[in-house]
Amino acid sequence: GIQVEQSPPDLILQEGANSTLRCNFSDSVNNLQWFHQNPWGQLINLFYIPSGTKQNGRLSATTVATERYSLLYISSSQTTDSGVYFCAVVLTGGGNKLTFGTGTQLKVEL
Amino acid sequence: DGGITQSPKYLFRKEGQNVTLSCEQNLNHDAMYWYRQDPGQGLRLIYYSQIVNDFQKGDIAEGYSVSREKKESFPLTVTSAQKNPTAFYLCASSLVAGGRNIQYFGAGTRLSVL
Lengths: 110, 114
Prior knowledge:
Structural class of chain A: mainly beta
Low-confidence stretches of chain B: none
Structural class of chain B: mainly beta
Order of helices and strands of chain B: EEEEEEEEEEE
Radius of gyration of chain A: 13 Å
Number of helices of chain B: 0
Number of strands of chain A: 11
Distance between the termini of chain A: 41 Å
Strand content of chain A: over 45%
Radius of gyration of chain B: 13 Å
Oligomer: heterodimer
Strand content of chain B: over 45%
Shape of chain B: globular
Mean pLDDT of chain A: 94
Distance between the termini of chain B: 34 Å
Order of helices and strands of chain A: EEEEEEEEEEE
Helix content of chain A: under 10%
């Protein structure tokens, strides 16, 4: 099946710092989503981004489908950004089945 | 309030017992999904349903069962055959039309074995 790898697995930042999270996938996809899982377990949709670039406030994401990777940028990080960030993909021809990466655990400190 | 409601938040199962987790959505979404998350891990697909009265196994369906009698509801039963049921269970839904399968998630149910 498709492999989805995220890096780094863990990240500690000082408040105000910027960061880049990476998602690599092994096959062609037609759907890619980024999620933030907060400390209570709730999964929050950040981006639906099978290709191209999108921005939402301090967050932006870029997917280069032909090179099989996506990047999530967090600028001016805040303590509320802490949690786990997941990317999830749907294999082209794979129906609606999302395959999740193993996540990046982010901790933002004062 | 629009969204996906999972209940209960916490559930305890005794040895040999079946338990049912509830998932209801009022988003008029066609497809619904159940995922399992173990500590420090990503989500794994248990079952999904793209239309009423039809559902398919995901990657880890053994020991689980589902039904889809109504569009709004997709309950998951964790049977006694599931030997390691302690996990966080998440339900999701999505519109299928238009090729944009954006999945939205409920708040989850934490299941523990007594």
